Here is the input.
Amino acid sequence: MADLLEKLYRNNGLDRGELIELLDMLDDDETMRNRLYRYALATRMCMYGNRVFLRGLIEFSSFCRKDCLYCGLRRSNGKAARYRMTPDDIIACCGEGYRLGFRTFVLQSGEDVWYTADRLESLIRQIKGSYPDAAITLSVGERPREEYERFFRAGADRYLLRHETASLPLYKRLHPDASFTERIRCLRDLQEIGYQVGAGFMVGLPGQTNEDLAEDLLFLQSLGPDMAGIGPFIPHSRTPLAGERGGTVEKTRTMVALTRIMLPEANIPATTALGTLQADGRELALLAGANVMMPNLTPTVHRPKYALYENKICSGDEASVCLGCLEMRIRMAGFEVDMGRGDSRRFLARQASAAGSGAQSL
Ligand code: SAH
Ligand code: SF4
Here is the structure.
């Protein structure tokens, strides 16, 4: 039998059937998984060296109009604690992050209708006005194209919108009030507008198979995002998926590594959800191809309320403590912290070719 892992690593191309076969083999073969992690690490070193980009995460509102089955913030969760930071709170939070050295702020929330396009646009302009050399990443869900355009013109640089799962039946089951077609419309609009776009998926969703995960990898490859966020699904006790099993560290790590090999130039975070499952989960992801981490800048009073899932790590730590802890973890794992903007290579190459200046080195 041909060595499918070797083929993937050398040629960067497996068809659907081969990918599924590879995923099945990886489930059963620890030696092969370790080889995969080595290949993914080598690819990441080649693309980004041993640096880990840090982003300051601000979870600014836990209100959400959506009802995703897996999420603790879903509107049907009457027990969810809701809070909303004001634009001034958010700007102050960016200020603290900037002083700590962050040059990317990720503004994430539920789909909160209070944050109209006008309010978000003005917020983005204010942050950019104060910190022009910092990148702004939005992660506020599905919006009309015209709003995405306004945010971009106001200075937003990047947008995170995981596709969640590329399996249509699974997507439907998990999102009673949303459609995969609309999610993809958003991702395509964001790309056309010029954002650095992040897609991604959860691992270990109820009923998810290796066929579904192969679909996720192929979807990412065809979309060609600048970022890919992959985390384990963690069941939340106040959702309809409370009794389900959730994803594992090993399987998530496998998907991170495969994503690195299939999208060598993407920024791939070692997610907080992985760190929640296992103390060294994020370090394990770094050693399998991930190159980004997102310490939390949200004021500690709000942190426990932003419960997409429960027992999230770092809920009580001040931003500077979070940063110090992560810096230590990154160094212990053999990497170096990079607080710069950390644009994706794919994006820098697009910029260089648009400027007609040919290839630009990092
Ligand atoms: N509302 C926005 C952004 C916040 S949710 C959006 O949905 O795009 C950010 C991410 O959290 C989601 O994309 C989802 O992949 C993840 N998430 C939600 N609930 C989760 C759970 N129970 N376990 C793991 N990840 C979860
Ligand atoms: Fe809302 Fe995002 Fe949670 Fe879905 S995943 S319920 S959109 S916060």
